[in-house]
Amino acid sequence: MPTFNAPSPSPRRWPYIGRYGKPGITRRDLPNFFLILAIILGFGALVLPLLGWLTMAKESDLKFVAGSVLQAPTWLRPSSPLIRIRVETDDGPVDIFEEDFSHSREIMNLKPGDHVTARVKLLQVGTLPGSSGDYHIWELKRDGVTIESYQDAYLYQTRELEQYKTIALWLGLISSIFLTVALALRMHFGAWGDSTPSVSVDAVGSVQPLSSADYPRTYYMSPGWEARTLLGGVALIGFGIFRLLSATADVSSMLPGIFFIIFGIIAILRDLRYRVVLSADSIEVHNLASTRVLRRDEILGRRLVQTRGGQIIRLMPQGGQRPLEVLLIEKTDSAFWEWMDTVPDLDAQDPL
Questions:
Q1: Is residue 41, in this structure, part of any structural domain at all?
Q2: Is residue 43 situated within a structural domain?
Q3: Looking at residue 44, which CATH number applies to its domain?
Q4: Contact 270, 290 (CB under 8 A)
């Protein structure tokens, strides 16, 4: 069944209902299924390096904590094992945490009353229950004797960051594979799978009239345009991830990679969002951030405009409204041009 001429009275919601009333997906849902997986994995590839960079700290950014141990260190297991040390300071009790277990023996030997000094970094709020006053250890001393140095902590965090980058690289690779699969499946099962022939602009006068019962009809991007924009978006995202993986802990070095990823995501979403819906008495153009609807009785006429990116049908509305532009990048049929043929041709009447 053609995807661009089937009426859709109401959108389907997840989970889809398959045979025997059980949740499931159909073949035509597979492109979106793999696309969702690609987006999730791509988001993970972006977030992991950012989390790694957020854990890094310069010596000048660290806070000094000094006091006596209130109770013996304890093991915690929120999402990953941690050692918690509760310290009584002049400003009250604080909790400091250690995740590098290479010094766990010395830390676990701390006893109540031992005097400790530490250089710490404030944990992200929400990392642990009640973590607004909790700190991550970057240097720890007991009675002036170093248990863990800043260099030890920095090397440990650097190794963790490298692991995050490796995982992010694999997630990005798998995400790209899933996106390619989604692209191929969409061409086979999705909106591209229809065999209705396209009609060129020159063939407007040769189409046969169709009744209003054939509407609404939905038109998506043609295979060539959609493949071009999707692959371009994947290339931008991949380059952005590469820039992030090669960036330092400095935020300014991360911004170019983030911008490339954002632009790639916007390109893909714009591609998937764009469509034109023709009804017997109106037209809808769905863009990335907006949807414009124009009734046919509000249209004064149409113009065909040639731009660097291709041809555009510009529908001129009454009352000085902003023109509605239809990009001729979608896969059309005879009904599309029949609908447009009913709109007066302003180029023939009054050429620009």
A1: yes
A2: yes
A3: 2.40.50.140
A4: no
Q: What are phi and psi of 76, to 5 degrees?
A: -125, 150
Q: How many domains does the chain have?
A: 1
Is the entire prediction scored with pTM above 0.90?
Answer: no
* Other Cβ atoms within 10 Å of 73 Cβ, number: 19
**Pairing of β 310-317 and β 324-327:** antiparallel
89 inside domain: yes
Nearest alpha-carbon partner for 65 in 128, 141, 129, 131: 141
Query: What whole-number distance in Å separates Cα of residue 277 and Cα of residue 332?
Result: 11
Alpha-carbon span 281 to 209, nearest angstrom: 15
Give me the domain span that covers residue 158.
23-195
* Type and span of the H or E element at 239: helix 223-245
Residue 332 within any structural domain of the chain? no
Give me the numbers of helices (H) and strands (E) for the chain, helices first please.
Answer: 7, 14
> pLDDT 10s digit of each residue in the chain, 352 long?
333 333 343 343 334 444 444 445 566 677 778 878 888 888 888 788 777 777 788 888 888 999 999 988 988 876 567 888 999 988 888 889 888 888 888 999 999 999 999 999 886 544 444 444 578 888 999 988 999 999 988 888 888 888 888 888 888 888 878 877 877 777 666 554 443 333 333 433 333 444 556 678 888 877 777 777 777 887 887 788 777 767 665 667 777 878 888 888 888 777 777 889 998 888 999 888 888 899 888 888 889 888 877 788 999 888 778 888 888 887 788 888 888 888 888 888 765 5
